[in-house]
Amino acid sequence: MSETIVDARGHPCPKPVIMSKKALGELSPGEEMTVLIDNEISKQNVCRFLQENGADATCTEADGLFTVRVKKTHSEMPSPSVEDYCKVPVTKAHVIAIKNDKMGFGSDELGQILIKAFVNTIREAAPLPGAIVFYNQGVHLAIEGSSLIDSLKELESRGVKILVCGTCLDYYGKKDQLRVGTASNMYDILEALTTAGHVVAP
Questions:
Q1: What digits encode the pLDDT tens for the residues 118-174?
Q2: CA distance 134 to 100
Q3: Residue 98 φ then ψ, to 5°
């Protein structure tokens, strides 16, 4: 009898678990099969499924390829939902920190063009950031006269927090000109930055 090979490479969860479950169901107790997987999360989920549902599973890894050797140990298998074995860690949203009303160094005119293009492009990004933080000269992008107010309001309506440094607004005498977002204190800004999945600073 030829060995059963389950080639689950290139498939996101739950497909590797589904393929493994089907192949395991076709084996008799004592028979073996091999499952090939090319990502860590799917390997963990497949092994947990097999070990909890009538099989012994051992795994080796080489150059990013996980080889799971499986031996069926029970004649009857439960029928759990494969989705129960395909939960992945939740990735925290990233935060964008904007400290200037221009992007980069050199030409101020070019820098203004670039920061405008950058903020407008955020609307097309996936996933959206959890928050955008404006501080120092960056607060000028959220006040009266900024060409980015409508873009920022759209992002805010889609769940992106717009945090604008209140101390910076006071320093520049612009607090009464804030047109989008919340005038935030340093505690809120620090919390947003330190709890982010990662911080992007253009």
A1: 999 998 888 899 999 999 999 999 999 999 999 999 999 999 999 999 999 999 999
A2: 8
A3: -115, 115
Q: How far apart are the first and last CA of the chain?
A: 60
A 10 A CB-CB count for 57 gives 19
In this structure, the dihedral spanned by the alpha carbons of residues 14, 17, 20 and 24, taken in order and rounded to 10 degrees, is -130
Peptide bond into 127 cis (omega under 30): yes
8 Å CB contact between 40 and 51:
no
Delineate the domains of the chain, giving CATH numbers in brackets.
4-85 (3.30.110.40), 95-200 (3.40.1260.10)
36-77 pLDDT, tens digit per residue, is 999 888 898 899 888 888 789 999 998 889 999 999 988 776
- CA distance linking residue 179 with residue 144, whole number of Å: 6
What torsion, rounded to 10 degrees, do the Cα atoms 137, 139, 140, 145 define?
Answer: 180
DSSP state, residue 4 = E
Contacts of 67 (CB under 8 A, 6+ apart): 34, 35, 36, 59, 60, 61
Q: Where are the alpha helices (DSSP H) in 104-184?
A: 108-122, 149-157, 166-172
Q: Are 170 and 136 in contact (CB under 8 A)?
A: no
Give the whole-angstrom CA distance, residue 104 versus residue 200: 14
- Rounded CA-CA distance 57/51 in Å is 6
